């Protein structure tokens, strides 16, 4: 088993056993995702999936839907947080529009307009999308993972952009962990007491409808976002293709729950970068059975937390690959 082999190798290195603390757990997880004691962390790519959400009309947050397009523009100009962090960590950046209301931006190497629709329906009033549209958005993610594998990418960081998507993620997280809906609702990109109350009400209403739906795919589609469905498809495909994937925050976690609900092996090569500030993130990670490696009070999204873990992933790979064993040093 690769897990045992990695543990044995780390214990045999010229250092006190366990002295690299949680870096050793990260090294073991990285080795597991690639099935080798010589894992590679480059080339790597951040894929940000974008989508818009009809539920914004309920006043569930502070920001208008137009901010999705504005942030996409910034990403393509290399001036968003994720673009800056991607450059800083030597990571390719790709923006995939799965269902935003943005204008079609000019063709660029780091941009794919693979839209299924221009925003979801308002999930507080009716199903967010049809099952056919869910499947199409899932396929957008599959295509992104296949493209990454064909390009020789070894590590895929996964993130999102979509105003309103913490409401959809809260719905999916409550549905798929069987939690009380209110426990998954947090401030997202900012809230007032009033907007938070509207968000709780929207999530509770949508959950009542979804829980009455006997078919899980229908229930999920009714709560989902195009970028979330695409992330789920990407996660499932990355697992099949043996690509190490690094998951970002609460919304990515909700997508991972969707992926696992429909494909049980979807988290085979997943690493959870961090535990963020959104209150639903910790219970989602617990339900996924994934250990988060950073606890930096992040609440941005855009794949930012995943990018922050990458230097530590490099460090974990370097330790496995480059450190001599004690036996080599002592000749024993
Ligand atoms: C300027 C800005 C940049 C962002 N980048 C990511 N998000 C994050 O906030 C959104 C989710 O929060 P909510 O559900 O409250 O809308 C998502 O787009 C997420 O990626 C941002 C939000 C804003 C406002
Ligand atoms: O955890 C996240 O990814 C997150 C939290 C708040 C807002 N946007 C994203």
TrEMBL record:
Pathway: Nucleoside biosynthesis; alpha-ribazole biosynthesis; alpha-ribazole from 5,6-dimethylbenzimidazole: step 1/2. GO terms for molecular function: nicotinate-nucleotide-dimethylbenzimidazole phosphoribosyltransferase activity. The keyword Disulfide bond does not apply. Gene3D superfamilies: 1.10.1610.10, 3.40.50.10210. It comes from the Bacteria. It is an enzyme of class 2 (transferase). Its EC number is 2.4.2.21. It catalyses: 5,6-dimethylbenzimidazole + nicotinate beta-D-ribonucleotide = alpha-ribazole 5'-phosphate + nicotinate + H(+). It holds the Pfam family DBI_PRT. Keywords: Cobalamin biosynthesis, Glycosyltransferase, Transferase. InterPro entries: Nict_dMeBzImd_PRibTrfase (IPR003200), Nict_dMeBzImd_PRibTrfase_bact (IPR017846), Nict_dMeBzImd_PRibTrfase_N (IPR023195), Nict_dMeBzImd_PRibTrfase_sf (IPR036087). Belongs to the CobT family. This is Nicotinate-nucleotide--dimethylbenzimidazole phosphoribosyltransferase. It comes from Belnapia arida.
